[in-house]
Amino acid sequence: MKTTLAVTYLAVASLLGPVAAIAADAATDPSKPVVYVKDSVITTKIKAELAAKHIDSLGNIHVDTDQNGVVYLSGTAHTQAAVDQAVSMARATEGVKSVHSTLAVKKDD
Q1: What's the confidence (pLDDT) of residue 25?
Q2: Nearest to 84 by CA among 62, 58, 106
Q3: Are residues 48 and 24 located together in one domain of the fold?
């Protein structure tokens, strides 16, 4: 009985070894979807934070994140203070390495 159980565990362990190796490769290869999900999570966190603030002066801000955790902000805001606040919120987000902003101040007519 013990021998059968030991052989079964050994067989299962030998089958799971390659699966663990593939999973480890997927987590470190930047072309794999795992990295894309991580980047989209950062983008989503920043967008949610901007939306949660309900700041009318934020205007139309686009957020994009590359595989290295670099965030790109583009679009318009109604005041320079809103631009500064959006950049600050992006920098404070977990996982963000740096923020590049091309946000412009554009007042509504």
Answers
A1: 47
A2: 58
A3: no
CB neighbour list of residue 81: distance below 8 Å, 6 or more residues apart: 57
What rounded mean pLDDT belongs to the chain?
76
Q: For residues 102 and 109, what is the distance between their CA atoms, to the nearest angstrom?
A: 21
Report the distance separating Cα 52 and Cα 91, nearest Å: 16
Tell me if 103 sits within 8 A of 87, measured CB to CB: yes
Residue 3: predicted pLDDT: 66
Whole-model pTM over 0.70:
no
Could you give the number of structural domains in the chain?
Answer: 2
The residue with greater pLDDT, 14 or 89, is 89
Q: How far apart are CA 39 and CA 7, in angstroms?
A: 42
The answer to whether 59 and 101 are in contact (CB under 8 A) is no
**Residue-range definition of the domain harbouring residue 95:** 33-109
